[in-house]
Amino acid sequence: MAITALKGTPVQTVGELPAVGATAPDFAFTGADLGEVNSGELRGKRVVLNVFPSIDTGVCASSVRKFNELAAGLENTAVVCASADLPFALGRFCGAEGIENVVPASSFRSDFGAEFGLTQADGPLRGLLARAVVVLDENGVVLHHEVVPEITTEPNYDAAIAALS
């Protein structure tokens, strides 16, 4: 189990992220339009998975805004912003904020959290995804990953983008 924290209190996840150098498990999310967003359709592109508990928190919203800004300058890269929020909430947020460079994705009916070891196993946000970033190459190989040590802080954007170099 990976360990993160919420306001200093340890929180365990259901497993570990796939190792750097390993092929990531296949994944499928539900997009804001209720269509599927899956690893198969993203093959051939580099993928940044920005994973967070809920778009309805300030830090989660900030990470989506920041990755939207960064995604505008990335070639052959899809930035997928994933949470267990319903697709409608993700779509509403992105529409209201003018977010157009990332793919909003809901794990509400997928095994993503278990497959990637990111479902929070305990704590007040139990059942939601932990805050993490996973960077994949064009073939789905993990180039970088980070489970943020404190859920209330933003991920290391520089390290995620550097992994694409």
Automatic annotation (TrEMBL):
Segments traversing the membrane: none
Keyword Oxidoreductase: yes
The UniProt record lists the keyword Mitochondrion: no
InterPro entries reported in the protein's UniProt record: Redoxin (IPR013740), Thioredoxin-like_sf (IPR036249), Thioredoxin_domain (IPR013766), TPX (IPR002065), Tpx_CS (IPR018219), Tpx_Peroxidase_subfamily (IPR050455)
Keywords of this entry: Antioxidant, Disulfide bond, Oxidoreductase, Peroxidase, Redox-active center
Record-annotated disulphide pairs: 60-94
Record-annotated active site: 60
A Gene Ontology molecular function term of the record: thioredoxin-dependent peroxiredoxin activity
Reaction catalysed by this enzyme: a hydroperoxide + [thioredoxin]-dithiol = an alcohol + [thioredoxin]-disulfide + H2O
EC number(s) from the headed UniProt entry: 1.11.1.24
Record-annotated Thioredoxin domain positions: 18-165
Self-association state and partner proteins as the record states: Homodimer.
Functional description taken from the UniProt entry: Thiol-specific peroxidase that catalyzes the reduction of hydrogen peroxide and organic hydroperoxides to water and alcohols, respectively. Plays a role in cell protection against oxidative stress by detoxifying peroxides.
Family: Belongs to the peroxiredoxin family. Tpx subfamily.
Miscellaneous comment as given in the Swiss-Prot or TrEMBL entry: The active site is a conserved redox-active cysteine residue, the peroxidatic cysteine (C(P)), which makes the nucleophilic attack on the peroxide substrate. The peroxide oxidizes the C(P)-SH to cysteine sulfenic acid (C(P)-SOH), which then reacts with another cysteine residue, the resolving cysteine (C(R)), to form a disulfide bridge. The disulfide is subsequently reduced by an appropriate electron donor to complete the catalytic cycle. In this atypical 2-Cys peroxiredoxin, C(R) is present in the same subunit to form an intramolecular disulfide.
UniProt name for this protein: Thiol peroxidase
Organism: Paeniglutamicibacter psychrophenolicus
Gene name, Swiss-Prot/TrEMBL: tpx
